[in-house]
Design brief:
By secondary structure, the protein is an alpha/beta fold. The chain has a single domain, classed as 3-Layer(aba) Sandwich (Rossmann fold). The protein is built from ten helices and seven strands. The chain has a seven-stranded mixed beta sheet with strand order 3-2-1-4-5-7-6. Strand 4, helix 5 and strand 5 form a beta-alpha-beta unit. Helix 1 packs across helix 9 and helix 6 packs antiparallel against helix 10. It is globular. Pfam families: Methyltransf_11 (PF08241). This is Putative methyltransferase YcgJ. Belongs to the methyltransferase superfamily. One of its GO terms (molecular function) is S-adenosylmethionine-dependent methyltransferase activity. Keywords: Methyltransferase, Transferase.
Length: about 260
């Protein structure tokens, strides 16, 4: 049975905080050069989770409203970002943010857009954006076939993960982006990113995914045994590497 989109990460928060990748600073550079991002640009980070992308903008001195429906993820973000006075935590969804209209310079969704009702989210983003505001959709997309390890890891997910294929964000197509931003054009940019893991960290990275059987779930022992074997067969200096393409989609919804 499919898990609820707003609660499926509730039992993954600790591993999510520790083992999910951040975003390269080149993302900020491209927003500055292409979209006019400044330190005073007001950011709505939708589906902000534990605050990984929120931190990127807060460290750029931006005021950020992090909108997150999952109570556990939102609480983790509030704890991790409490030292940033320009951070504001909001209990809301992409479809009903609770934010004021015609206010924000940027609406950002990092590793989250594939969970949204795209039609309703588009209407809500249009409502809260200023004229000339930008929508920025970001994913760290794990490469699946660039190394023997990544090929084996992908096979692990296909064999053992519960609903991996159903919720995989790569199911979103270029047509989906074109439809979301239409009639405005959408621009895609790609940057390199990576994480290096020892076996405990690799285990935590897998367990941060909502489609992985968790401790005590059916299939947990089997997926962990396969993971350890894959690590042993592919490690170098007791580590393996996750390679990512950080893909950024830019566009306007208001002229």
């Amino acid at each position: 049975m499919m898990k609820s989109n707003t609660t499926r990460f509730s039992d993954r928060v600790e591993n999510y905080v520790k083992y999910r990748p951040g975003y390269p600073t080149e993302v900020l550079d491209c927003l500055k050069s292409r979209c006019g991002l400044t330190q005073e640009s007001l950011i709505a980070d939708i589906g902000s989770g534990t605050g990984i992308s929120t931190r990127l903008f807060l460290e750029n001195q931006n005021p950020v409203y992090g909108v997150e429906p999952n109570a556990e993820m939102r609480a983790a973000g509030e704890t991790l970002l409490k030292s940033f006075p320009r951070f504001h935590s909001v209990n809301g969804t992409a479809e009903e943010t609770g934010l004021p209209a015609d206010t924000f310079d940027f609406v950002v969704a990092s590793q989250a857009f594939h969970w949204f009702d795209q039609t309703r989210a588009r209407q809500e983003f249009q409502r809260i954006l200023k004229p000339g505001g930008w929508v920025v959709l970001i994913w760290n997309e794990r490469k699946t076939d660039s190394t023997p390890f990544l090929k084996a890891y992908e096979k692990l997910l296909l064999d053992y993960a519960t609903d991996y294929q159903e919720v995989n964000h790569t199911r979103i197509t270029a047509d989906d982006f074109q439809k979301f931003f239409a009639p405005s054009p959408v621009e895609q940019l790609t940057f390199s990113n990576e994480q290096i893991f020892d076996l405990p960290a690799l285990t935590g990275r897998l367990l941060s995914s909502s489609y992985c059987p968790n401790v005590g779930d059916p299939g947990y022992e089997e997926i962990m045994a396969r993971l350890e074997r894959i690590f042993t067969e592919n490690q170098s200096a007791s580590t393996v590497c996750f390679e990512y393409d950080t893909n950024v989609y830019l566009g306007m919804l208001k002229s």
